[in-house]
Amino acid sequence: MSELRPLGKEYIFTSAHFNTVKSLLYQFAGIKLAESKDAMVYSRLVRRIRALKLPGFSDYFDYLQANESEHQEFINALTTNQTAFFREPHHFEVLKRHLQAHPQTKRIWCAASSTGEEPYSIAMVVAEHFGRFNTPIEIIASDIDSAVLKKAQLGIYPIERIETVSDERKKMFFQRGKGAQLGNVRVVPELRQMLQFTRINLVDNFWSIKTPIDIIFCRNVMIYFDKATQESILKHMMLSLAEDGLYIAGHSENFNMFPQIITPVGQTTYKAVKGSVSAKTEY
Ligand SMILES: C[S@@+](CC[C@H](N)C(=O)[O-])C[C@H]1O[C@@H](n2cnc3c(N)ncnc32)[C@H](O)[C@@H]1O
């Protein structure tokens, strides 16, 4: 990487600036930024620099240091939030089968829920299983990014986002927008009420979530963490998992390097290694 690279016309962005961003994002969110992400970092952060009317990146870092409230904006600007309804559909079949086999299921956690498509997909399967919206299952949706959590809570999406959702589910779970909301759909309020939204940073030592958890969906977020961070999160999650609980990972995530913690039971589906760690009591 060159020493001084004006990637955009507006602000000077150097290797030192990029390295500062890398180490701050690692410190705040555990996210390891690849070297190739420099253009992405520039374009996302100039929006903050412009909004704050600051002269450049160094001034932005000073501002970040002086204002703790900017930490969240910094995180929100740099997370990648790609998601979809019923993404990796086989996992929703796993959920359905688990609900059938474990009538005592109480709690499902969607640990990197982004804009809500994933936890609403979970809620649809749960509602279908019970044949009603009012179920005994708590579904907790969390993310580190406060902006995506707000979007998720609204439950409003461009209609194209539900193109791959079956007609039956469209009818049952979505309302078409009118007037200013034309072209959007909204999840029905009963589905929204099935979810609890909360901000959880997975690299924090304490998570404000009740345990035991029967199923943890933690998909497509571990890829951003290094091995040590993954290991510590996995250990914490296995401690939170119910005896027969499942951990569901994303398609490109593989935990074969942690055989002492977690063992595969299907395609990107895992359970805790017996005798390692399992939470049996509520706290
Ligand atoms: C690519 S999205 C995956 C969304 C969804 N799980 C899916 O598979 O469709 C990754 C999400 O992880 C969240 N994330 C990144 N670092 C996090 C952390 N330290 N704690 C909690 N969430 C984090 C991001 O904000 C983002 O919404």
UniProtKB/TrEMBL annotation:
<dbReference type="Pfam" id="PF01739">
    <property type="entry name" value="CheR"/>
</dbReference>
<dbReference type="InterPro" id="IPR029063">
    <property type="entry name" value="SAM-dependent_MTases_sf"/>
</dbReference>
<feature type="binding site">
    <location>
        <position position="83"/>
    </location>
    <ligand>
        <name>S-adenosyl-L-methionine</name>
    </ligand>
</feature>
<dbReference type="GO" id="GO:0032259">
    <property type="term" value="P:methylation"/>
</dbReference>
<feature type="binding site">
    <location>
        <begin position="201"/>
        <end position="202"/>
    </location>
    <ligand>
        <name>S-adenosyl-L-methionine</name>
    </ligand>
</feature>
<dbReference type="InterPro" id="IPR036804">
    <property type="entry name" value="CheR_N_sf"/>
</dbReference>
<feature type="binding site">
    <location>
        <position position="87"/>
    </location>
    <ligand>
        <name>S-adenosyl-L-methionine</name>
    </ligand>
</feature>
<dbReference type="InterPro" id="IPR026024">
    <property type="entry name" value="Chemotaxis_MeTrfase_CheR"/>
</dbReference>
<feature type="binding site">
    <location>
        <position position="118"/>
    </location>
    <ligand>
        <name>S-adenosyl-L-methionine</name>
    </ligand>
</feature>
<comment type="function">
    <text>Methylation of the membrane-bound methyl-accepting chemotaxis proteins (MCP) to form gamma-glutamyl methyl ester residues in MCP.</text>
</comment>
<dbReference type="InterPro" id="IPR000780">
    <property type="entry name" value="CheR_MeTrfase"/>
</dbReference>
<feature type="domain" description="CheR-type methyltransferase">
    <location>
        <begin position="6"/>
        <end position="275"/>
    </location>
</feature>
<feature type="binding site">
    <location>
        <position position="143"/>
    </location>
    <ligand>
        <name>S-adenosyl-L-methionine</name>
    </ligand>
</feature>
<dbReference type="InterPro" id="IPR022642">
    <property type="entry name" value="CheR_C"/>
</dbReference>
<protein>
    <recommendedName>
        <fullName>Chemotaxis protein methyltransferase</fullName>
        <ecNumber>2.1.1.80</ecNumber>
    </recommendedName>
</protein>
<feature type="binding site">
    <location>
        <position position="81"/>
    </location>
    <ligand>
        <name>S-adenosyl-L-methionine</name>
    </ligand>
</feature>
<dbReference type="InterPro" id="IPR022641">
    <property type="entry name" value="CheR_N"/>
</dbReference>
<keyword id="KW-0949">S-adenosyl-L-methionine</keyword>
<keyword id="KW-0489">Methyltransferase</keyword>
<dbReference type="InterPro" id="IPR050903">
    <property type="entry name" value="Bact_Chemotaxis_MeTrfase"/>
</dbReference>
<keyword id="KW-0808">Transferase</keyword>
<dbReference type="Pfam" id="PF03705">
    <property type="entry name" value="CheR_N"/>
</dbReference>
<feature type="binding site">
    <location>
        <begin position="219"/>
        <end position="220"/>
    </location>
    <ligand>
        <name>S-adenosyl-L-methionine</name>
    </ligand>
</feature>
<dbReference type="GO" id="GO:0008983">
    <property type="term" value="F:protein-glutamate O-methyltransferase activity"/>
</dbReference>
